[in-house]
Design a protein that fits this description.
Catalytic activity: an N-acylsphing-4-enine + H2O = sphing-4-enine + a fatty acid
Radius of gyration: 26 Å
Protein name: Neutral ceramidase
Shape: globular
InterPro entries: Ceramidase_alk, NCDase_C_sf, NEUT/ALK_ceramidase_C, NEUT/ALK_ceramidase_N
Cofactor: Zn(2+)
Helix content: 10-25%
Structural class: alpha+beta
Number of domains: 2
Strand content: 25-35%
Number of helices: 14
Keywords: Hydrolase, Lipid metabolism, Metal-binding, Signal, Sphingolipid metabolism, Zinc
Bound molecules: 2-acetamido-2-deoxy-beta-D-glucopyranose
């Protein structure tokens, strides 16, 4: 740099610091973007509850990827994506980065891109590439994988293409009445002094990043809140982004007026955080028949009292989703509308930085301070394994058979089944203790890895904010400890008072991470803490090193890359064979016409002869449109398949002849304009001799009247 330039820069910095020129201290380029990432809506198993009966039969809400990109004056850049998916898999991230590099060169790498899944349990699976996670989906599903990759890629591309001079603000608000702890007895294992620092046994603070351009026009808002998107339970068969996804749509609707869901410039995202033990089913766990409370320790009901599961606050799962989503969206809107700035809203200022490291968890050797014995303990990770209580499921979705949460002794029959698959060694058993091993996934290699051994750990720093991308589901206290640690290390390393956000289920999926104390209780989350009792302690170590190195501007060794397994994927899912239709009634034929007229709150149902929706996922488009008549020539799209008010259910009518129907439902909401409407369906069919062809159908028109 020339000395003149240095002098000018020093002068500018002085002016900045003295507050005279305060807008220059946060000279960022910012961009936000959104893209459709909806997977196959039918015939593919959902990822989340591992319920073999939960196979897609249609669509309620589309899945979207939402991204922001920030660049500072030094041309350092970070990108963050939140996608309506069960979680993130490394295969997906690797492919997204590959496509970004093909387009932008090495501006984007695995180190400065974070992809975080919202954790909806009602979206198609088969994209994780680790056998245990794809097995309940019957293997790898290329169509799900491609939809997620392309959606994430496009969201970053759009954010990049939209970059403008802008500023970023951080604010927080408390939202009560949307989450409860689903393993409260585990939480109680944490030290009493530690628990005394917090009012609740789950985090109730929503943290928001608001992006504006240089004219202060709102571009987007990203919100983090710790809650499972499991308002829709394991009986749901319609693809949906659940409470978090619907909260995003509600927020976007406020700023993208007159746009159908998923369209419009403003991007509003709700992203996952330390939600490991956090349920949205706030009426709590009850026995399904008796209505009594379940046993607190095992989450079981006495015989004849039914199954134990949690629900609420609505009368059914749709209403519960709507209530939770509305409360989340209202919290975010409160922050956006707060002109008084009385909340803790403040501008984010300072340089960007990022750091990433792969860690071989089973081979991790470290030491940690043991406060009880006042000495350094050697710690190591275990080979991945799942405990008995994993099979018990949770009160958000109970498991099969008679497994109980809190199980710390094995059972001869299940041990025999386990050993038939692959037996754990004595060393595995003592490493994971007190977890009784149900599946020694780390020893299984056939036909490829069952669970990851190498994890991704990553930090993005935007000024005095740090986003910690964690490869799984941290419980409430596990997340709090990590946040406090990173913040303290940042300050001690010379950083400013630093805000830390946990970005959950990022980059690669490794199930749960509990605190060592919670691990002892061996409820579901602990049984699914796959690297054993030291899992969390190792992450505390690793993130400490990452924080120090990032703030000092040092480099760390990249660590061993996860194996490439794309060419070995197993799948028992078959593709579409062919579609047929009854003689004389072509694809798009209306089998069930609407009535002549409807009123508010009634539901219109129309049935078309259809092809298989898997023939074309219509990304960024729709399988149907509810259209309102404007004049003799013009109809306007009022609702699409991504609208809350609509659903489609696909029905196989004749397996051998390949006949199927699509039933389109539209519930007429209170704000619907009266007038003349019709429903149009768009589809593709697969011809028996090969080829996929488009078709279309239009229903009779009908009236919507006010009374
Ligand atoms: C799922 O929710 C429906 C109501 O929408 C309810 O009837 C059903 O019992 C619930 N099932 C489970 C397992 O939670
Ligand atoms: C940790 O120690 C084990 C056993 O001594 C060794 O096999 C392994 O390579 C070590 N891991 C690392 C990352 O150094
Ligand atoms: C429609 O249903 C809502 C909610 O149940 C109710 O509040 C409203 O009064 C109903 N509107 C009409 C016109 O029936």
């Amino acid at each position: 740099m020339h000395w003149q330039a240095s002098v000018i820069l020093v002068a500018l910095v002085t002016l900045c610091l003295s507050g005279v020129l305060w807008s220059c201290i946060s000279a960022y380029q910012v961009g936000v973007g959104r893209a459709d990432s909806t997977g196959p809506p039918v015939e593919i198993h959902f990822m989340g509850y591992a319920n073999l009966k939960q196979v897609g039969r249609g669509l309620h809400l589309r899945q979207f990827a939402r991204a922001f990109v920030v660049e500072d004056e030094n041309h350092k850049r970070v990108a963050f994506v939140s996608v309506d998916a069960g979680m993130m898999g490394y295969g997906v991230k690797r492919e997204v980065v590959k496509r970004l590099q093909a387009r932008y060169g090495d501006i984007y790498t695995a180190d400065n891109v974070v992809i975080s899944g919202t954790h909806t349990h009602s979206a198609p699976g088969g994209f994780l590439m680790h056998l245990l996670y794809d097995i309940s989906i019957l293997g790898f599903v290329p169509q799900t994988f491609e939809a997620l990759v392309q959606g994430c890629y496009l969201s970053i591309k759009r954010a990049t293409d939209n970059m403008v001079d802008g500023r970023i603000f951080l604010s927080r608000t408390t939202i009560l009445n949307v989450n409860i702890n689903r393993s409260p007895t585990s939480y109680l294992r944490n030290p009493v002094e530690e628990r005394a620092q917090y009012e609740h046994d789950v985090d109730k603070v929503l943290t928001q990043l608001r992006f504006v351009d240089s004219e202060n026009t709102l571009l987007g808002a990203f919100n983090w809140y710790a809650v499972h998107p499991t308002s829709m339970n394991n009986t749901n068969k319609l693809v949906t982004s659940d409470n978090m996804g619907y909260a995003s749509l509600l927020l976007e609707k406020e700023y993208n007026t007159n746009k159908v869901p998923g369209k419009g410039k403003f991007v509003g995202a709700f992203c996952s955080s330390n939600l490991g033990d956090v349920s949205p089913n706030i009426m709590g766990p009850k026995c399904s028949i008796s209505g009594n409370d379940c046993d607190l320790l095992t989450s079981k009901c006495p015989q004849k009292e039914g199954e134990c599961f949690a629900s609420g606050p609505g009368r059914d799962m749709f209403e519960s989703t709507e209530i939770i989503a509305s409360r989340l969206a209202d919290g975010a809107l409160r922050l956006l509308n707060d002109n008084s700035q009385e909340t803790t809203s403040r501008e984010i200022v300072g340089e960007l930085a990022y750091i990433h490291q792969f860690v071989d968890m089973p081979n991790y050797n470290g030491t940690t301070y043991n406060p009880l014995q006042r000495k350094l303990d050697k710690i190591r990770g275990c080979l991945p394994a799942m405990g008995y209580s994993f099979a018990a499921g949770t009160t958000d979705g109970p498991g099969a058979f008679s497994f109980e949460q809190g199980t710390i002794t094995g059972n001869a029959m299940w041990n025999a089944v386990r050993d038939f698959i692959v037996p754990p060694t004595q060393e595995d058993i003592s490493c994971h203790s007190p977890k009784p091993i149900l599946l020694a996934t780390g020893r299984a290699t056939f036909p490829y890895e069952w669970q990851p051994k190498i994890v991704s750990t990553q930090l993005l720093k935007i000024g005095d904010l740090i986003l910690a991308a964690v490869p799984g589901e941290f419980t409430t206290m596990a997340g709090r400890r990590l946040r406090n640690k990173i913040s303290a290390v940042a300050v001690a390393t010379g950083g400013k008072d630093t805000e830390v956000i946990i970005a959950g289920l990022s980059n690669i999926y490794t199930s749960y991470i509990t605190t060592p104390e919670e691990y002892q209780a061996q409820r579901y989350e602990a049984a699914s803490t796959i690297f054993g009792p030291n899992t969390h302690t190792i992450y505390m170590d690793v993130f400490e090193q990452l924080t120090k190195a990032m703030i000092r501007g040092e480099r760390l060794p990249p660590g061993p890359a996860p194996p490439y397994m794309n060419d070995r994927m197993l799948s028992m899912n078959t593709g579409v064979i062919f579609d047929g239709h009854p003689i004389g009634k072509d694809f798009g034929f209306v089998k069930l016409q609407p009535k002549k007229s409807y009123q508010i709150n009634e539901t219109v149902v129309v049935t078309f002869i259809a092809g298989n929706p898997r023939n074309n996922l219509f990304p960024e488009k729709t399988y149907f449109a509810v259209e309102r008549k404007i004049n003799e020539e013009r109809w306007k799209v009022a609702y699409t398949d991504a609208s809350w008010e609509t659903k489609f259910i696909w029905e196989r009518v004749h397996l051998i002849l390949g006949f199927s129907d699509i039933h389109i439902h539209w519930t007429i909401g209170t704000n619907t304009l009266p007038g003349e409407y019709r429903i149009r369906h768009f589809g593709n069919y697969k011809y028996i001799l090969g080829g996929i062809f488009p078709y279309e159908g239009i229903s009779n028109s009908f009236l919507v009247t006010e009374d």
